[in-house]
Design goal:
Largest sheet: 4 strands, antiparallel
Shape: elongated
Oligomer: single chain
Strand content: 35-45%
Number of helices: 3
Order of helices and strands: HEEEEEEEHEEEH
């Protein structure tokens, strides 16, 4: 294999992805445990070493991702309470996964507003695009932000109304 050639996704892993019509692989990376991480147009998918899909989540489920070059690890944080996903790449220099992941997450965010509360805690309200292109609003609160508190709820609702209105979504 040439040094500059990116490793290709093995056929058994590609077949196991069972992508819906219209979806396609954009980037992939082999992970240190022999599994694969795959960025498709619609989702982030991981497979085990045998090519079986382990996780498939749409880009709108990704809150953020961070790349640590010293360990070649991409850590994905989800919008829900799911534990973060650590992807340790075999060779980050030969994969476009980190860049593609960043681009796909950014393209899922149409508009966002951050609401800051006491002690610097925040909640983000965003209008995002799902895998079919439909828009929806999403609220992501930091730990310690009580969305059931009437004052917090009122401020978050107001922010959600602003981003929905600005993006053309009904209130």
């Amino acid at each position: 294999m040439s040094w500059f050639r990116r490793p290709s996704l093995p056929d058994d892993v590609r077949r196991a992805l069972d992508l819906p019509a219209g979806d396609r692989v954009l980037a992939s990376a082999e992970l240190v445990d022999g599994s694969w991480a795959v960025a498709t147009r619609g989702s982030l998918v991981t497979s085990d070493g045998a090519g079986r899909s382990v996780l498939a989540r749409p880009w709108s489920d990704v809150d953020r991702a961070a790349y640590a070059p010293e360990s070649s690890t991409i850590t994905v944080t989800w919008v829900d309470d799911a534990p973060p996903l650590a992807l340790r790449l075999v060779d980050s220099r030969r994969s476009g996964l980190a860049q593609t992941l960043r681009e796909r997450v950014q393209s899922s965010v149409v508009l966002a507003e951050t609401v800051t509360f006491a002690a610097g805690r925040t909640a983000r309200v965003a209008v995002r695009r799902d895998h079919d292109g439909a828009l929806f609003s999403q609220v992501i609160a930091e730990p310690g932000v009580d969305l059931h508190d009437p004052e917090v709820a009122a401020r978050v609702d107001a922010a959600e109304g602003r981003v929905r209105s600005a993006s053309g979504l009904p209130l």
